[in-house]
Design brief:
This protein has about 150 residues and is of the alpha+beta class. It has three helices and five strands. The model is unreliable at about 145-150 (pLDDT under 50).
Length: about 150
């Protein structure tokens, strides 16, 4: 994979149930660049996860919008991703890993410049993320194997 962007900084890693019908899970990582103006979200690849979302903007579009965000479809998907990333730090899911500084690289799949700032971001980049620290990457990949809580 050609890596389009690299950085170092705070990274928040969390499991996500991204498809309710199949119970499909993935691991997402959120960080920022440009002093926080750009939200960076990446799927951390997990070997054998056949339900891994390939395109985070498409994943965002599948979640639907009630009208809280304005603009065309890609703008609204970018807003959803910015919200999901920023929210991962303020309302942490069980198992969330938050590291103050680590190296990362992103194979960018898509980007959008937002029409106005959302959650402190004016731009959103999304793709597949690789963590420089292999031990941290192993911890992140293990998040997808956690058992889901199912309502009785």
């Amino acid at each position: 994979m050609a890596q389009n962007l690299t950085g170092r900084g705070r990274v928040t890693i969390f499991p996500m149930l991204h498809d309710w019908e199949t119970g499909s899970q993935c691991v997402l990582a959120y960080t920022t660049t440009d002093g926080g103006l750009t939200a960076v979200l990446g799927v951390i690849p997990v070997e054998g996860n056949v339900h891994e979302p390939g395109d985070l903007f498409a994943l965002a579009g599948r979640h639907g919008f009630i009208g809280e965000w304005k603009g065309d479809h890609k703008q609204r998907c970018g807003c959803w991703l910015a919200c999901t990333g920023a929210g991962s730090r303020t309302v942490r899911k069980p198992g969330t890993i938050d590291v103050p500084s680590t190296g990362w690289s992103l194979d960018m799949a898509s980007t959008v410049d937002l029409a106005s700032p959302y959650y402190g971001h004016s731009r959103v980049l999304a793709g597949r993320m690789t963590l420089a620290d292999e031990q941290l990457a192993e911890q992140a990949r293990a998040l997808v194997t956690r058992t889901l809580v199912v309502a009785a």
